[in-house]
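This follows on from our talk about sequence and fold. Please put the record directly below this note.
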Amino acid sequence: MNKIAKLLSLAALLAASAPLALATPITGTIGLAGSDTWTTNSITFNPTTGFVVLATGDFSGLLFQQANLGSFTFNTAAAHGIVLFATPAGSPTVTFTIDTITGSGPNPMIVGPNVAVSGTGVFHDAAPGFTDTSGTFTLSTTGTGLTSFSLRSDPVAGNPNATPTPEPSSLILLGTGALSAAGAMFRKRRIA
């Protein structure tokens, strides 16, 4: 009977830990559009004009939602902005924090009358079950102040949180197997 109790305890522990295993990286691409003003050192977005124009993967539910673009400086030593994606009513918010910025051109961010910026950052989804995920971005804006901001998640490269996480279905299968083994042992003892 002691073995059965141990197996049942193990099965209960595995079943209880299944929700902890749901942390998965954020995947997909998101494209934003909006308006801005910029100088040779920084870019400032009009917060009421940003919206999602492209959304794939985990971002697909954000298509045509409003987005709040955080203004930032081009100086890579400075603190960078956070891009907030407004989500459908009642849903958690997705953010992208810019970590590094690179550019091309003599400034190096300014190319003629345009700004061309790219870099890396981290996606954070306030919804339960997602882990912070590294990503890349490209931003371009024209002399007319129209912004094109494309972000892509990169759940493996450079992501400190990209550790292998067991699938919940595997844990459930393991727990079911443990329960079946316990049941078989119990039945065998009962028959004997």
Q: What stands out?
A: The radius of gyration is 24 Å.
